[in-house]
Amino acid sequence: MFNKLTTKLLTAATVVLAATVSTATFSWANPLEMRISLDTGPAHARNKAMNKFVEVLSERAAGQLDVKIYGSAQLFKDRDVAKALRQGGIDMAAPGFWYLGGMVPEATAAMLPVSYGLEQTASVGALDSTVAPFANPLIEAKTRSHVLGGWLVLGGTSYFSVSKKIATHEDISGMKMRVPGGSLIAAQAETLGASTVRVPFSDLPLALSQGTVDGFLSSAESVVSAKLWDAGVKYEFNDNGFYAAYVPLISNAFWDKMSPDLREIVVGAWSDTIGAAREAALASQVQARVVLAEHGVVSISPSQEGIVKWRAKMMEKQDDLVATMKMDTDFISNLNAEYKRLAN
């Protein structure tokens, strides 16, 4: 009797174990496809950072995810990814914060005149302490996404030109400048006397070669990654117009497909790679200027007096810009104070 009961229990346990193994095997044999959209090419610091994230994530997920990165705007340009995330057209993206300003104006606050020309410590410090914490929940609500963690900071931006050498701020006057998007950065260039044109980064080489623009605002690393000297770029005016950063977003639709454990793995993979990714991106800016010089691009930094003078001119418009964009005034007061604290 005892032997028969034992046999039945063992048989039942074997069935349960087999079912469990079968379920696990089925789950791993059909991993969730995770599509990541970027509009920069494989040599760009953002793509390199995402590759490392995917490498760590894939190892930890142990077959539960099939992650694919679609770079060079194969799926969407950055200006279109917020809509794609809302509609489930992609699962993850990391758009520049300037493309989110139409939905969340505070996301672009790092472009305000108060930040013009500041060094890394103040610019990135305020981004982490004030801008991202305020903007993240608003971005999540508007894009129907989750902000995965810290923003990927690329570095300070410059004005680049094809034929006209920019040695001082005044030399920008009268030029047609491509800006990546956002009212604030357009206002900066227009204060300097330029007319502005919105051109996606992936379309910039053609715009330069056809003379649609005389120059553009970007980072040195981005110029190197796209080899824009081939499109005629000859000069850089390194004014640290603002510090560019990318916001890591996962759509709610994809988030809801993942188990709590898998969500924790995804968040952990980003958390464990973003620090090194930031360091690598900022270091790439330094190396980029070496590469630019090797290809004949002349880099000029403005005087500190020039930075202070033109920041003051831009600040004359800040209150109007804040009002026009309907930014939260308490947030702006806190941000102004934080920039002042960090810059001293």
Please give a structural write-up.
Helix content is 50%, strand content 15%. By secondary structure, it is of the alpha/beta class. It has one domain (31-343): 3-Layer(aba) Sandwich (D-Maltodextrin-Binding Protein, domain 2), CATH 3.40.190.170. The N and C termini lie far apart (85 Å). 44% of the residues are buried.
Give the SSE layout.
Elements: H1 2-29, E1 32-37, H2 45-61, E2 65-70, H3 81-87, E3 92-93, H4 120-143, E4 145-147, E5 152-156, E6 158-161, E7 176-179, H5 183-191, E8 195-198, H6 204-209, E9 215-218, H7 220-225, E10 235-237, E11 243-246, E12 249-251, H8 252-257, H9 260-294, E13 298-300, H10 304-315, H11 318-325, H12 329-343
Parallel strand pairs: 1-2, 1-3, 7-8, 7-9, 10-13
Antiparallel strand pairs: 3-12, 4-12, 5-11, 6-9, 6-10
Task: Give a short overview.
By secondary structure, this protein is of the alpha/beta class. 50% of the residues lie in helices and 15% in strands.
Keywords:
single chain; 344 residues; alpha/beta; D-Maltodextrin-Binding Protein, domain 2; 6-stranded mixed β-sheet; 5-stranded mixed β-sheet; 12 helices; disordered N terminus
Give the strand tally: 13
Mean pLDDT over the residues = 91
> What Rg do the Cα atoms give?
24 Å
CATH level 1 name: Alpha Beta
CATH architecture descriptor text: 3-Layer(aba) Sandwich
**Ends distance:** 85 Å
The computed structural class is: alpha/beta
Question: So what's the overall shape?
Answer: globular
Poorly predicted runs are 1-27
Helix content: 40-55%
Order of strands in the sheet with most strands: 8-7-9-6-10-13
CATH homologous superfamily assignment = Bacterial extracellular solute-binding protein, family 7
Helix and strand pattern: HEHEHEHEEEEHEHEHEEEHHEHHH
Query: What is the count of structural domains?
Result: 1
What CATH calls the topology is D-Maltodextrin-Binding Protein, domain 2
DSSP helical segment count: 12
Largest β sheet strand count, sense and barrel closure:
6 strands, mixed
The portion of residues forming beta strands comes to 5-15%
